[in-house]
Amino acid sequence: MRSRSLPLLLAAAARAATPAAPVAAPAALPAADPAVGMLPPLRTFTGQDGLPENAVMGLALGGDQRLWVATQDGVGVYDGRGWRTESVPDKARSNFLRCVAAAPDGTLWFGRQDGGVAGWKDGRWTDLAPTLPPVAEMVDALLWADGALWAATDHGGLGRWDGHAWTWIGPADGLPSRETRALAAWDGALWVATRAGLACVRGRKVVAVELPGSPVTALAALSDGLWAGTADGHLWRRGASGWAPAP
User: CA 210, 212, 213, 219 torsion: positive or negative?
Assistant: First the structure.
């Protein structure tokens, strides 16, 4: 009994004398970014909160510092505490709003799926539908620039409303297509995205702009240049040296 136990005791003693393999220290956690805790919490609004419709097509900040929202089923207005809705003129015709733009005089202009353009100011609507040709009653984008309201229509080309009458720009003036999609004001000109390409409008002069890839579907004028997004997922920026793909 004693002779069989001796090898086991010697083996145990040898293992105890062998230095243990070093244990790797746990990886240091990245330092917390103090700015993260300063970010405001993100909140999602839906119809249950009072939003007229969950499909939001456009946003604009009014002169009353309220958020005005164009949805596929009417106008929503948020005052920081709750929502209210506004009914557009001839709601039965179309309550589908495609865009919204704020004018310097406080008017909120809305582009409609059917019914053209309507403006809200001081509790009253101005309906421009009777002033529009039938081909221009679907409005995809609105922009206030150069003292006028510009409207990108789905089939009627580019319209300019000066408060009294419309002026229209189409293919005969050099616009690549009557189907216009997006607008931006940059470098003293109006930039128009159409189904057949991009155009730059200065006064009555219209110049087609070549951009590689599929048609431009979105435009944004920022401090570092004009940004253009295309239907095939590319992003371009135009600065002082011309167009370049986004890094």
Answer: negative
